[in-house]
Write a structure and sequence with these properties.
The complex is a heterodimer of chains A (about 500) and B (about 60). With about 500 residues, chain A is α+β, with helices and mostly antiparallel strands. Chain A is built from 14 helices and 18 strands. Classes of the chains: A alpha+beta (about 500), B mainly alpha (about 60).
Chain lengths: ~500, ~60
């Protein structure tokens, strides 16, 4: 039986300190995040800043076992790294500001918290710019490439059963990651792959496909693999693994985010339940990634290992049909119940649109919305695809500032509303352990020494600090601990009652 | 190939279900085309000053 697909998204944003001469992205990122935290403190909505706890971090662990290549990524511990009352993590990662959503129990909640992350960045920008001298400002983009060969990620995480052989995950996940690009792409002018440019690839579906050079591996910053093997469950390692997905684009379209994580949750749940009898093994997955991304007509036949070919669209139709059958037999509990049903309907609607006329999806998919804007501008002004004016538009599509963002003007359909997004900036989801983390921070920030995904450390005024482990991502919900947290006057009382519970 | 044929049987049926929605879809399509002109006018107004210089100097190293 598939485990509940608890999901999280981590987005690295592009950042520029404009008007400051040589801009240092690390300093700019720190400034951005600190400005937000100070702004919150100023408003008295949060107590002292709570730092991230690195006690349990082990990003070098490899899902393939100890024999995997050893080159653990470095974790920056000295830079600003905060836990927010909505259960999210907001920090400087390498040279980018990054926001990780709290753990969410379904695809719709992910969309809400992904939007909340954008709103947090927007408020950060305003707060930081107030502190900067006249003529200087921070500019932030929700994109994945600078157009000059540098990429940064929007990673997804899915809770999975430890018992599933990793090789089985690799096979099916690879087929999905390659084919889902037809709706997950955020669109890009030109190519950043070696030897290719705007002449060969005027426009492609995704920002990220150019940067994948391996099929399976531990790396995230170089020789990026389609399936990442980081084995760091942030949960009970005997029962769970966390599939760390690094192939996706950051989406501005809510429908694209919804379907990206929603469809992936279905595929992974089916892997756990052995509900995918047909496997699509590509002759060259790395090449197939690019072939799909470079084909705006969605007709490209992809070569399978058995010599036959299939299009990305047909792989997706098959996965959707299997998902419907699986849902009929097993139910939708592990993929969000009614939200799972909505995922299936959206999936079908999007595939049907892609099959008949992708341009009808300009209000739902990023790559189409951006293509429509760029094509319109190109025709109006008679420009070549390589024109810098088009590159400027393409970049500004992702500008996080509402007054500049072109995505915000593209007529994209909403799934969320502004009120729930504003609430999600400070309120945690109620149906995962993020609730416990967020509520404890709301109530007792001054006594929380540190927190991370699977524990909170309290200082209750005694000799030693008290660590509360949270190894079950679906426990610590409002239903489990809401009353307990509400009724406890102090963390000491909470801990005593938790111990007695 | 059996699976492929089976899927093909499913797909047209799915499309048949959508026949009723076709007028709405093309209406949406026409509206989108009309909207693009307004959008392009608006874009000229919100376009970053020195947008081309900005995009030329836009470099983002150190990402995952």
């Amino acid at each position: 039986m598939s485990v509940h697909k608890v999901i999280g998204i981590e987005t690295e944003f592009g950042i520029v300190h404009r008007g400051a001469g040589e801009s240092n992205p690390v300093t700019a990122s720190s400034m951005l995040i600190n400005a937000y935290l100070s702004d919150l403190e100023h408003e008295q909505r949060a107590g002292p800043k709570v730092g991230w706890d690195f006690e349990d971090e082990s990003p070098g662990n490899d899902a393939r076992g100890p024999s995997g290549p050893a080159s653990p990524p470095e974790v920056e511990t000295h830079l600003v790294n905060a836990v927010l009352t909505n259960g999210a993590r907001y920090y400087v990662d390498h040279a980018h500001p990054e926001c990780s959503t709290p753990e969410c129990a379904d695809a719709r909640a992910i969309v809400v918290y992904d939007r909340a992350a954008e709103a947090i960045l927007q408020r950060s920008i305003v707060a930081a710019n107030r502190l900067l001298p006249q003529g200087q400002e921070l500019v932030v983009h929700k994109n994945n490439s600078d157009g000059k060969g540098n990429s940064y990620g929007c990673h997804e995480n899915y809770l999975m059963a430890r018992s599933v052989p990793f090789g089985k995950i690799v096979t099916h996940a690879t087929a999905h990651f390659i084919s889902r690009q037809i709706f997950t792409g955020s669109g890009k002018i030109g190519s950043e792959a070696p030897g290719l440019g705007v002449r060969e690839v005027p426009y492609q579906l995704t920002q990220r496909a150019d940067f994948f050079e391996a099929e399976v591996g531990l790396e995230t910053t170089l020789k990026r693999p389609i399936v990442n093997t980081r084995d760091e469950p942030h949960a009970d390692a005997q029962k769970y693994r966390r599939l760390h997905v690094i192939v996706g684009d950051a989406n501005c379209s809510e429908t694209a985010t919804f379907l990206k994580v929603g469809s992936t949750a279905f595929v992974l749940a089916m892997v756990e339940d052995d509900a995918l009898p047909r496997t699509f093994v590509f002759r060259s997955p790395v090449q197939a990634m690019r072939q799909v991304s470079y084909d705006v007509d969605l007709q490209q036949p992809l070569e399978l290992i058995d010599g036959t070919t299939i299009t990305a669209l047909d792989v997706q139709w098959e996965l959707l049909d299997r998902s419907r059958k699986w849902a009929e037999e097993r139910g939708l509990d592990s993929v969000g119940g009614d939200v799972g049903a909505k995922v299936l309907d959206t999936w079908e609607e999007i595939l049907a649109g892609l099959e008949s006329d992708p341009m009808t999806l300009a209000d739902r998919l990023d790559w189409v919305a951006k293509y429509r804007i760029l094509s319109g501008y190109r025709e109006r002004h008679g420009l070549e695809w390589g024109d810098h004016r088009l590159s400027a538009l393409a970049l500004q599509y992702h500008d996080v500032r509402p007054e500049r963002s072109l995505a915000a003007r593209a007529g994209l359909r909403r799934i969320t509303d502004d009120a729930e997004v504003a609430a999600a900036m400070t309120e945690p989801p109620v149906d995962t352990r993020a609730y416990f983390r967020g509520r404890c921070l709301q109530r007792w920030a001054s006594q929380v020494v540190a927190a991370n995904w699977d524990s909170i450390v309290f200082d209750v005024g005694q000799d030693s600090l008290r660590r509360v482990p949270m190894m079950e991502p679906m426990r610590g919900t409002r239903a489990h601990v809401g009353t307990l947290v509400d009724e406890s006057a102090t963390p000491a009382e909470l801990l005593a009652r938790l111990g007695g519970a | 190939m059996a699976e492929q044929e089976q899927k093909r049987k499913v797909t047209p049926a799915r499309k048949a279900d959508e026949v009723t929605e076709v007028p709405a879809t093309s209406e949406t399509g026409e509206k989108l085309k009309a909207d693009i002109d307004d959008l392009l006018d608006e874009i000229d107004e919100v376009l970053e000053t020195n947008a081309e210089d900005f995009v030329r100097s836009y470099v983002q190293k150190g990402g995952q």
